[in-house]
Design a protein that fits this description.
The protein is of the alpha+beta class. Helix content is 24%, strand content 48%. A hairpin with a 2-residue loop joins strand 2 and strand 3. It starts with a helix and ends with a strand. The relative contact order is 0.21.
C-alpha cells in the first residue's frame, strides 16, 4: 500500500512539474497577421529573439480598458513595446493578456 502511495505522489509531482504557469515577456512587435476585426497571430522581438504568439480564443481587447486588439497595429507602426502574458500549449504560445509596456 505504501509503495502505491509513494508512486502516486511521485507521479502527481511529475505532472505538476510539467504543467508550467503563465509567463510574461516584453518586446517590440515585428509582425501582426490579421485585420481590424481579428488578429490571427503576432510576432515580438525581445532580447534578440523573435517569438510568435496566437491570441487566446475570445481575447479581443488590448489590456483591460476595452481597446480593440487591433491596437497592435499602432504598436507595430510606432515601435512602442508591449507586454504579453502567455502560456504554452502543445508548443504554441497562447497570448492571454496583451498590454502597453
Amino acid at each position: 500500500m505504501r509503495v502505491w502511495s509513494a508512486a502516486l505522489l511521485l507521479l502527481a509531482g511529475a505532472v505538476a512539474g510539467c504543467a508550467g504557469g503563465d509567463e510574461r515577456v516584453t518586446g517590440v512587435l515585428t509582425d501582426v497577421d490579421g485585420d481590424l476585426s481579428r488578429i490571427v497571430s503576432f510576432e515580438l522581438l525581445t532580447q534578440g529573439e523573435r517569438i510568435q504568439f496566437v491570441p487566446e480564443d475570445g481575447l479581443d481587447v488590448f489590456g483591460d480598458d476595452g481597446t480593440p486588439l487591433s491596437h497592435l497595429y499602432e504598436h507595430l507602426q510606432t515601435g512602442d513595446p508591449v507586454r504579453v502574458t502567455y502560456r504554452v500549449e502543445d508548443g504554441v504560445r497562447i497570448a492571454i493578456l496583451i498590454e502597453d509596456a
